[in-house]
Amino acid sequence: MPERRDSAPDGLQDLEGLHGSIASLLEEFGARLDRASTEDDLRQLQISLMGKKGSLTALLRSMGSLPPEVRPQAGKLVNEAKQAAQSSIESRRAEMARRDLERRLATERIDVTLPPRGVRAGRLHPLTRVLDEVVHIFTCLGFDIAEGPEIETDWYNFEALGIPPDHPARQEQATIFIDGRPDLVLRTHTSPVQIRRFLGEPPPVKIIAPGFVYRHDDDPTHSPMFLQVEGLMVDERTSFADLKGILELFIREFFGPGIRIRFRASYFQFTEPSGEVDVACVECGGEGRADCRVCKGTGWLEILGCGQVDPVVLENVKYDPERMQGFAFGMGIDRMAMLKYGIDSIQLFYRNDMRFLEQF
What is the pTM of this model? Predict the structure, then answer.
């Protein structure tokens, strides 16, 4: 009984029929190629011939209907036709690109007498300038830079710093909580970075922690998001005198050697004793004029808080408070920038008004 073969398209029972089918397809292809005038025309022609449902693809799939001894030669014929068609398409594509370039060169003109468009140089944001300057001064004093997450746990942000849930100091923080997670907050200060550094390495510790913090405040002197830098130094011999010396050096380096400074007693939750540092008003020169809009007649401006690290904080991070002591300080970069540049509203920093930013 003769071997049964699947039926094939008309004309594909032998190589001669295959030759005829390929010649017919290429003839039709050549006519369509001559009419093609756009890239889309070429793409559609290529799909119709060599796509999944293309004519040459169908011929390849029908190879099984031919006798086994002629299939290799048949496959070669179809592949050669496919390569020839692809080469013709690429040649036509290159020709179309050449003609398009010639057309553009003949019709488009560049007026070399026109002045060039200006290139606007970028510049640093004033807060970035001030932050870089503050960080530079403290790194020159030997402080390392430490960073931490902006979403913190209640323990790192409050409890480890000696602020339990019922402590009245929590009312001053204007905390923003994460919806559905009462144990997570947007950090209200960068002090959690100090706790993470305490837990991550043994003393001595000498760091500054710059970064964004978040509080539910919004007025000309407060923003829901602002930059803060906190400093920390802990070892066996650090004293309040070291704190005063470092801060005086920093302030005179930042504002200039002629600036007047005063320390006064204050209260913070995680330092004891605590203090605040004021500088003479940059607007009235410390005269305390009644009409001064910056110091409101006091002659002084508060710039940062500081103090000795509370022993409770050292105990929370497993440091021995009988052997270790240190100091911490913190300042708002936004406020430092306002004082340095004479800006009366913190909101100007975040409005992206180019008229304001181009002044720096």
Answer: 0.62
Number of separate domains in the chain: 2
> Which residue range(s) make up the domain with 199?
126-357
**272 within some domain:** yes
CATH of the domain at 155: 3.30.930.10
Mapping DSSP onto H, E and C, the string for the chain reads: CCCCCCCCCCCCCCHHHHHHHHHHHHHHHHHHHHHCCCHHHHHHHHHHHHCCCCHHHHHHHHHHHCCHHHHHHHHHHHHHHHHHHHHHHHHHHHHHHHHHHHHHHHHCCCCCCCCCCCCCCCCCCHHHHHHHHHHHHHHHCCCEECCCCCEEEHHHHCHHHCCCCCCHHHHHCCCEEECCEEEEEECCCCHHHHHHHHHHCCCCEEEEEEEEEECCCCECCECCEEEEEEEEEEECCCCHHHHHHHHHHHHHHHHCCCCCEEEEEEEECCEEEEEEEEEECCCCCCCCCCCCCCCCCCCEEEEEEEEEECHHHHHHCCCCCCCCEEEEEEEEHHHHHHHHHCCCCHHHHHCCCHHHHCCC
300 found inside a domain: yes
Residue 342 lies in a domain: yes
Position with higher pLDDT, 137 vs 21: 137
Q: pLDDT tens across 48-86, in order?
A: 888 888 888 887 777 777 788 777 887 888 888 888 888
Of 107, 136, 153, the one marking the end of a domain is 107
Q: Do 338 and 290 reside in the same domain of the chain? A: yes
Domain boundary, last residue among 107, 139, 168: 107
Report the pLDDT value the prediction gives residue 170, as an integer from 0 to 100.
67
